[in-house]
Amino acid sequence: MKIRALFSILVLATSLPLFAQDEPATQTLPPSPVQWSLGLGVVSSPRPYVGTDNSVLVMPLVQLEYKKLYVQGIRAGFHLFEKGDLAFDARARIVFAGLDPDDSPALDGITERKSSIEGGFALDWSPGKYLLSATAFTDLLGRSGGQQVGLDFSRAWTFDRTRWGLTPSIGAVWQSSDFVDYYVGVTPEEARPGRPPFQGESAVNFRASIFAFYYLTMRVNFVALLRVQRLDDEISLSPIVDKPRGYFGLFGVNYRFGRLPPRASAD
């Protein structure tokens, strides 16, 4: 559902290939032990709730890597296992979910739903320019007490010696009944005329996206992302939800610090 959009956008925006041009002499040195970048992005993220408008946010884009530890956008992780095309990580992330009843008169009487932090694992298989990623997370703060399991497939195309590229992807996320009920359910106490009680059940949402990057220099790059996500009927039939799908967008710029790793190979 749409509450995962911001997480996906920021992670994609901070996981970019290096623009392969002729490096200066300093690039013969080993890369810095700490790799990090900092940027700024404008995010348009629709909300699914009745009477709410799209939100437009200006947010930092941050990436930090040190040995097996990393921070990418609003997620952090540790590489437990890496061999060939396979990687298995322990990971935590912020879930920018939630409902504020002050956002719309139609939500009057609904109890606030809060964002949370999830923890879990990710398994990535990346043969060549393909990536198949499976993730499983559970709520660590006890807000929803729910789980999310995702599966995404993508293929990267790069051009002009990886100066710019495109990555389309498709995927799906399963959300447990506790997760769905917390964010879109309506208790008997919250019911009103025209807003009957609603108990959320587990749901599967499908999504597709296109990501693009362009390196102006070895250090400065621009990123953009467009995504559409279709909500399962178990979500869209809630009386506090009035949108069957969501469209997301990002445009941002990043700057990479420190000595850069060796250039990527050309196509």
Query: What string, H for helix and E for strand, traces the elements in order?
Result: HEEEEEEEEEEHEEHE
Question: Got a strand count?
Answer: 13
Question: How would the global form be characterised?
Answer: globular
Count up the domains: 1
Considering DSSP H and I runs of 4 or more, what fraction of the residues is helical?
A: under 10%
Kindly report the average pLDDT value.
85
Low-confidence parts, pLDDT < 50 over ≥5 residues? Answer: 1-29
Q: Helix count, per DSSP? A: 3
End-to-end CA span: 36 Å
Question: CATH topology, anyone?
Answer: Outer membrane phospholipase (ompla), Chain C
Task: Tell me the radius of gyration.
Answer: 20 Å
Question: Based on the structure given, which CATH architecture is correct?
Answer: Beta Barrel
User: SS-based structural class?
Assistant: mainly beta
Describe it.
The protein is 8% helix and 48% strand. By secondary structure, the chain is mainly beta. It has a single domain (2-257), classed as Outer membrane phospholipase (ompla), Chain C (Beta Barrel). A 12-stranded antiparallel barrel has the order 1-2-3-4-5-6-7-8-10-11-12-13.
Question: Can you give keywords for this protein?
Answer:
disordered N terminus, 267 residues, 8% helix, twelve-stranded antiparallel beta barrel, Outer membrane phospholipase (ompla), Chain C, mainly beta
What is shown here, in short?
By secondary structure, this protein is mainly β.
Helix-strand blueprint:
Blueprint: H1 5-13, E1 34-45, E2 55-66, E3 69-72, E4 75-83, E5 86-95, E6 116-125, E7 130-139, E8 147-155, E9 157-159, E10 164-175, H2 177-184, E11 203-215, E12 220-230, H3 233-236, E13 245-257
